[in-house]
Amino acid sequence: MFGKIFNPAPLEYTPSRRIIVTWILAGIFGLLAYAFFNEKIFPLLNVNIRVAPERAIATADDFLKREEFSSSEYERAVVFSSCSTEYLQEKMGITKTIALLQKDIPCWSWDVRYFRELQPEGFYVSVDALNGAVKNFYHTLPESTEGKKISENEAKTLAEGILKRQNYDMAQYELKTNSHKDLPKRRDYFFEWEKKNYKIADATLRVMLQIHGDRLGMLLKYLEIPEKFYRDMTHKTTVGIIITLIFSAAIGIVALASLFILLIQCKYGSVRWRLAIIFGALLLPIRFLNFYNTLPSFWYSYPDTTYKAIYFWISAVSLCLGGVFTGGFIFLICAAGESLSRKLNLPGFYLLEALKEPRKFSNKIISIYTIGYSFAFCMMGYEVLFYFLGTQWKHVWIPLSFSYSGMLSSKMPFLEPLTVGTSAALLEEFLFRLYMIALFTKLFKRPWLSVVLQAVLWAFAHSNYAIYPNFTRGIELTIVGIALGMIYLKCGIETTVIAHYVYNAVTAGWLLFQSGNYYFVSSGVLVLLLVFIPILPVYLSKRYAKSRK
Amino acid sequence: MKQKKIILGVGFVLGLLSLALFLYTYDDCRPEASLDVRIDKKMAAGMADEFIHEHGLNTQGYERTVTLEFKDQFYLKKTLGMKETTRLIRHAGVPCWSWQVRYFLESQKEEIRVYLNPSTGEIIYFSHALMDDAAAESISHDEAKFIAEKILLSLNKYEEFELIQDSFEELANRKEHVFEWKAKNIELADATLHVYVAIAGNKLGHYAKYVEVPDGFYRLYQREATPSMIVYFVFGVLNVLINIGMLVALFLQYRYSKIRWKFSGAIALVFVAVSLIEVWNFFPVTQSDYYTALTKNMYLTIHLGTRLFGILLTGLWIFLTCAVGDSLSRDIGIDAFPVLRLLKERNFSSPQLRERIAVAYILGLLRTGYVTLFYLVAIRFVHAWKILPSNYAVSFSAYLPFALPLTMLITDTLTNELKYRLFAISFFKKYLKLTWLAVLLSSFFWVFGNYNVAIFPAYLKGIELVTLGVIWGFAFKRYGIETVLWAETVFAFILVAMPLLRSPVDFFHTAGIILVVILLLPLGLFLFPSSGENSSLNLPQGAKQ
């Protein structure tokens, strides 16, 4: 009985109407659960990013002008960044942390970089993404640049004046560091103040200021967190990294076996090279799209010791190489997995088979899509419920994180879920579901064991996520992995690829949708529309069938 | 036969002359000539202990590691030249090489590091890492300055200094005072000699003596390194294509030719075994790099786990490269492993075996002369300078210093030779048909595929090694892979043995002698009386004599 539910379905199998309706209901329930609990589990999603990157650049320009720096000859690059909040969360809880981050401690910012090709001098200005005020500043200046040698008192007065202009009440601050250094052609000063009577557990609020000659060199406001906390966090996260490494090594060995499987299969001429090449090659345009989309972050990291053209082309070709590697890997596992699945009468590519005869299999196609989308929504609901219960019992701890900084920094935020979502869905589903289930079934003869094994490998390779205890993510995803494995055995690999992609796209789009910024909201709407992309092949194939007729 | 003997004899004499030239000009053109180890690990640890106790610190219960470290003096080499830099490091106390004695406790941030000049025992760096909230007695800034000055003068008796940095920082439970001085009247082009002293509470927290390089230099250096980075990158891309070609060739050879899986498997296994020995031999370095935010078990799991996985992956790659390369070489009629074949046949007295061994020694020795001449000319006309490779520091830190070139023979040289000689030459020859083109292409890939920025101007390495790659390529074709492997090893042995042999410390000196003995071991085959038989009848199928 137990083994039966894991038995692969034949190609002719089409889920009954009752099963489809059940899936639809489950999907709706999952979506509702996600909408309701998401904010409670991941409250940062509700942070209102009111300032747009263009406004941040304008503010940064004004700041430089006010401090009498000329920025006209510089190029600009802007990225979104967020601080780490683990300490506050551990000491004060989520609600107080968020309140504090929105008021006292700058956490979410647009970082504007001013740079020139091959020039060491440049500026970094950090603008608060919530209220548009300049928070931090840094002027990169060679040590050999000429400047004044003012006295300590003059430097201190200058520094306090700058801070007053930034609305600091200096009576509330106490000097903690005082330093000067004689450089070949100027004298630099460095001061650090701590806010009096302001403590969050053992952390203090500090502001650093550097004077280059007689001008502002650096301004930085930050929370000085006890070092022990960071060491403990390093220890905690490393446990997760070790679990991930162990499981990744096991996955690597299993994946390498695909080469030998392919060698053997190839000798008997039973490999569908063309199919594997198409999926492998699909990744290359996706990579390029992603590169184009992440250009702002790319220029933000430009090393000004090299020519821009060299930096660009080396990065672009590296990306191409990365695409060739990943594409080659997908090609290998797709070819090996597909040929092995066919040999073992496992589902493989049900949808592709069905699309050959779209009329005959129209119900099957509809059911594949319905199950794919419904399962994605189920996964979303399951995830938030899992963590809601985990955190309620106080055994599970999820640091507030803003893992979508890359998306906000991108040229077109709606493209990120498409590029990242597609490659993750293809790579993981082909490797774990298509290839590993076939390989383990060949080795152990029991589909249920194959499903469980691949799910455990897939799930615990995700242990490097900042979720504690470190095995939590593994347990959560093992269940998802088993479910994906079972769906694969009944409905084919396309269903799980669709489910995986839709999950990635909707969760990313949700964040954009909730931000207060018009541009991000419209991007969020676009992302939510992009989840219909998997339907495209069906539409195209139907049109093709029609035209042939 | 007689003519062959004469050629070999002349080659051998030229080889010895090359070695003599190499030894004679060693200080002028080898970057590792600056290494002068007169203090052994035990002495270094004793001196560090003494220094620590002098400053009122207690290291009882701490683990201790001793390793050789180096900080290359790029700026001095570029501006003053290799010879002068070597002189400054060996005789004028400019910091470069150092014994690092580290004292640490598991999962504790508090630790002490002392760096000593391996030649004189001078303390060149000290740090006592404390938690930010660690408590210490607070003293006034003037008192701290007095202590710092005392330390400065006690460790630098012969220089005059001027104060350039003066600062204090108030931490939760202690004050830290930082002072930095610049040496007057010491001219190192535009660089200056600095001493940095930090007083944590009322004790020495940090001390560093270092060469402060003009800040524009590193930008200039990076820009100068850019062309070679580009070349490295371009050939890196082409190397990926070679690897893809290897996979495609694997499928084709598997389908249409015979592959010697067992033979390739044995070579890959040797690689894995030797790599594991290397991991053990370098364990002192692993221990010394322990990151105290983790437990030791966690650190070792990550470090050794990733290393072992890397070894397995490379082993697999060697297995495949060897399998394809061997199969392709037999297809095009190259006898790639003649020495292994003759040894397997127990044909120790075969003239072919002797010839191949003799050629390997001659090529290895000639390389010393070639490299010396090349760099003498390059230093003279284009002010060439070289970066220190890390092998020497690793060798002095290892359990068995003499094992480095032996393990490198398998882990490094074998990997390269299998890929660029056995596979690449056979592959290009099979599909492009022209031997000279195959040899030239493979040597380009060999050189630029491993093209790190080690020599300036960057193009020099290309000229030096492409020429060598072509010679190695033809040597491979004529004498097989083992000859090239041993020729490379002879050169590596000489390079690693030199600093060991020059050290007056018994342990290192003996290690150098052991290296020389190992280097000469294959010559033992000449003790067997020559059979004068030609073993061409036993050549593998398809291979030509």
Describe this structure in words.
The complex is a heterodimer of chains A (549) and B (545). With 549 residues, chain A is an alpha+beta fold. Chain A has two domains: 2-41 and 230-547, no CATH class; 53-225, no CATH class. Chain A has helices spanning 17-41, 53-66, 86-92, 94-103, 152-165, 227-267, 273-293, 295-300, 308-343, 350-356, 362-392, 405-409, 415-444, 447-460, 472-491, 493-514, 518-530, 536-548, and strands at 75-82, 108-115, 122-128, 134-140, 173-182, 187-200, 203-212, 215-224. Chain A has an eight-stranded antiparallel sheet. Chain A is elongated, with a radius of gyration of 27 Å. The two termini of chain A are 46 Å apart. The relative contact order of chain A is 0.12. Chain B has helices spanning 2-24, 26-29, 41-54, 74-80, 82-91, 141-155, 216-256, 261-281, 283-288, 296-331, 338-344, 351-382, 391-397, 403-432, 435-449, 459-479, 481-502, 506-520, and strands at residues 63-70, 97-104, 111-116, 123-129, 160-170, 175-184, 192-200, 203-212, 385-386, 455-456. Chain B has an eight-stranded antiparallel sheet with strand order 1-2-3-4-8-7-6-5. A two-stranded antiparallel sheet of chain B has the order 9-10. With 545 residues, chain B is of the alpha+beta class. The model of chain B is unreliable at 535-545 (pLDDT under 50). Chains A and B meet through strand 5, helix 6 and helix 9 of A and strand 5, helix 7 and helix 10 of B.
